[in-house]
Write a structure and sequence with these properties.
Elements lengths: L1 H6 L13 E8 L3 H13 L7 H15 L7 E4 L13 H7 L4 E3 L17 E3 L8 E12 L15 H13 L18 H8 L5 H4 L8
Antiparallel strand pairs: 1-5, 2-5, 3-4
Helix pairs in contact: 2-3
Length: about 220
């Protein structure tokens, strides 16, 4: 429910919907790369002018919207920002309140070793660890669900030591991918997918066999 999200954030970040409004958090799993992105690029290669992943997600969610012709469906993407440069929604908070993935933050560590350093939090999924992404929020403004019960996310990094290790790896060594394997995972990115996401965005077109930005 939108109210679960708004309840844990400052008013500046609130979503402008009644508390009982139904919302879905959309995640992409490791297999998205082969099952969705590559076929999409192959089919749409002449139309890709921005970011292939963003366009692929948008393409598939437009089909979801079509499945509900009688409903108003609002979609907010993870990359969208407001005029004040703030994100339109805080993806990790949304995933946490929806019970999709646990958002580990500095406040989850009792004996904080970081002093004055800025420490960012990170979501971990019980099945995919850090090998997933939060892509969008689907909102159904006309559907109110006052009786929907909130499910807590699975706390899969439950020890103090592991949480410290996770936040250390994410904040200071994120490029080596190690934080994503903080727990035993069922599936991870392929080497090809890792290479794609490790490549600067402007050079990714080449990896996908595209000629670059504006085709």
């Amino acid at each position: 429910k939108v109210g679960w999200y708004n309840a844990v954030l400052q008013p500046a970040f609130h979503l402008p919907y009644p508390d009982d409004t139904l919302a879905f958090v959309v995640l992409s799993t490791p297999s998205m790369f082969d099952k969705a992105l590559k076929p999409f690029v192959h089919k749409e290669r002449l139309k890709i002018i921005r970011d292939p992943v963003d366009q692929c997600v948008s393409h598939h969610l437009s089909f979801v919207k079509e499945k509900f012709p009688d409903q108003k469906v609002d979609i907010i993407y993870d990359y969208e920002i407001l005029p004040n440069r703030k994100p339109k929604f805080l993806a990790q908070t949304a995933a946490h309140v929806a019970g999709a993935a646990y958002y580990y933050q500095r406040k989850d560590v009792k004996l904080d070793p970081w002093g004055k350093k800025k420490i960012y939090g990170v979501c971990i999924h019980p099945k995919y660890g850090g090998w997933f992404a939060i892509r969008a929020l689907l909102l159904f403004p006309d559907i109110q669900v006052p009786l929907l019960e909130q499910s807590a996310p699975i706390d899969c990094v439950s020890t103090e030591e592991k949480r410290i290790e996770l936040l250390e790896q994410f904040n200071f060594h994120w490029q080596d991918w190690s934080y994503r394997d903080i727990i035993e995972v069922k599936e991870r990115y392929s080497e090809e997918q890792k290479a794609y996401f490790a490549t600067p965005p402007a050079e990714r077109f080449q990896l996908l066999g595209l000629q670059g930005g504006a085709q």
